[in-house]
Task: structure prediction
Amino acid sequence: MGPAAETDLAVRSMEAADLSAEELFRLLTGAVVPRPIAWTSTISDTGVNNLSPFSFFTVVSSSPPMLLLSMEYKEGGFLKDSAENIAKTGEFVVNLPSSGMAWAVEVSSRPFPAEIDEFAQAGVTPLPSHRVRPPRVKEALISMECVLHDIFQPGSDRLIVGKIVVFHVAQKVLMPDDKINIPALDPLGRVANQFAYTGPIFTTPE
Ligand SMILES: Cc1cc2nc3c(=O)[nH]c(=O)nc-3n(C[C@H](O)[C@H](O)[C@H](O)COP(=O)(O)O)c2cc1C
Result:
């Protein structure tokens, strides 16, 4: 047996089509790491504030600035409250939690009924936004006010693309050249179904 074949034995290769939804979820959430967390505020059409974390989250365009959130459906195929609110109001705010906010993030992910204010449950302070109705999280060091651009669904989950209309950045994480001071931001990450700190940052040698 040649060296390549020996290496192959140490790897388990799996056809995606043979895996259950649960197995796929476990592989993806463990392999695509670390993920940032979009701590997302929305408001219902009756004015109830909602706050929920989404780690299937990324930038899709820098100019105009656009973000993408991916939301699963609830059991029975119902929309999550965040998805429902965004579809109805066309607005949301992505707040970025620091590591010390992990507990509040966890609490805000619980399936509270739609009429419960999740800012109050998580113990965080709603601060009025400038251009959208959902409030931002006062304790978050960065918040981005977004207007809905598009909703689409290439697979099992609902993808929400929003255009950022206002950035709020705490002075203490903004450096003189307008770069973000990452250690000061201390962003909370998601790895599998656990949380992670952002570790030491380095540059490769010249
Ligand atoms: C750190 C973290 C990340 C999460 N990421 C996602 C995600 O990317 N997509 C998703 O559908 N649910 C995700 N969840 C679960 C949702 O946060 C949870 O279902 C949500 O709070 C539902 O609330 P809502 O019905 O008020 O929108 C995550 C939970 C946690 C704790």
Notes: The helical segments are 3-9, 21-31, 81-89, 102-108, 118-122, 182-185. The domain at 35-192 is CATH 2.30.110.10 (Pnp Oxidase; Chain A).
